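Contributing new records

If you add data, match the layout below exactly. Sequence lines come first and carry their own label; structure lines follow with theirs. Keep one chain per record. Anything else will be rejected by the validation script.
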Amino acid sequence: MLHIDHLSKFYGKKQVLFDISFSLDPGDICAFIGSNGAGKTTTIKSALGLIPFDSGTITIDGHNIETEPMEAKRIYSYVPDNPELYTFMRGIDYLNFIADIFELDYDTRKRGIDTLSKDFDIHNRLGEPIESYSHGMQQKLALIGALLHDPKLIVLDEPFVGLDPLATKKIREHFKRMAEDCDTTILFSTHVLEVAEKLCNKVAIIREGRLVYFGSTQEVLAKGSLEDLFVERMQDHA
């Protein structure tokens, strides 16, 4: 579904990504872990064709992100760490705006909006202006918008920041259902290692622009914890 092959990137003369390669299959849920400034967001934005990169090949469901950008971008949804919403809109108007972009018919959008807004406990607030929402509610609204068109690939940058434990649990359960029932591929960056252990079947660790681990969560937990592995890989490459 998502294949990153030998991705490298420079900002001016400074190299910030070094020959990164990993692949995710349908139904994979992968945590992308690293310290602040390690290159998580740069890798994600490069892989999605949101910023240019200098070398490497990215394919999404068989579509090359450089030569077939429109085809590739129709397949995924991306939620950044601070989604920019039209806060003057009501929540329902924003979701209908997103549904218009993806040309969803009335029944499909209504079913999606009703189901997702109830799942994420903001159904009763959709008639209110987004500017009145808390950070957590805005995060959930952005996530609902990203899920409306049933993307094959969902990429999220720190999706659990600012969410209370109940909201985190509900979103985690929803992601797991999507992966199991619909073969949706999910990649998200996070600092919350406990969530990654419970949710993911794959984990990628990046340090200073270099991928220092990629493998199955099951293998990690068979030898210890994700925290142990993270600390070990940071020390190994210090």
